[in-house]
Amino acid sequence: MFSGSIVALVTPFKKDGEVDYDGLKKLVDFHVESGTDGIVAVGTTGESATLTIEEHVKVVNKIVECADGRIPVIAGTGANATHEAMTFSRLLNNSGIVGVLSVTPYYNKPTQEGLYQHYKAINDVSEVPIILYNVPGRTAVDLLPETVARLSKLENIVALKDATGDLERVAIHRELCGEEFVLLSGDDATGLEFVRLGGQGVISVSNNVAAKPMADLFDLMKEGKYEEAAEIDKRLTSLHKNLFVEANPIPVKWAVHQMGLIDDGGMRLPLTVLSEEAQPVVKQALSDAGIL
Known about the structure:
4-hydroxy-tetrahydrodipicolinate synthase; Schiff_base-form_aldolases_CS; Schiff_base-form_aldolases_AS; TIM Barrel; diaminopimelate biosynthesis; globular; single chain; 8-stranded parallel β-barrel; alpha/beta
């Protein structure tokens, strides 16, 4: 169900800071034409933290509308309050999405039992498949493999996005969760190796600008052509690294704007546009990848 090259899509804003709903169609068309396997709408890269609930739901619905069945859409629905994450699930159950991506609760540092109960509550109200999302570097909490295994037994929890960069966890998760459970990387720099070790794909930041190379890379992986895929990945190494030269999604949004895919690269506070010092770094990474 979830595999290959999935983009963690940026959310475009107008110069006045309002969401550019018309601009979403250009982004969706770009990914359809590039062969991207799926879109995550309003995840971390989509600036979910600074959108209102109304905006969040409206952006997801607009992306589903623009996709028009041409590409599957996954909605970011994570929150650090369980009731809010449940609300997102209820509001989006009948929106046309194929699943939801739910990040671990951030800032409040729940225990492993708290994480289990959080996701169980979401499982109980969701009518679409759920992808767990573990990114300790941003949330300050680590969803441990044993807890993932417990959660994998629940009806609607079918996958994990693992952004730890810890490749040893691929085999651990596979052993604990079984062959049917989907493992997705959330770390572009180690994504190729993650899939080689048994993962099914990557939810990618780099895909926002390198959509065609990323799609080609995973097509080659499916065909067992690892060395050819590795050559593509090698060209993207600088991009994978330097799209995080400042906090995501600051660099990638600037890059998408430079490519002309969105009309404005502005952010909502407390995030600010990419600094002048970092701009040449990202521009060089785009050049190294053959994008600019």
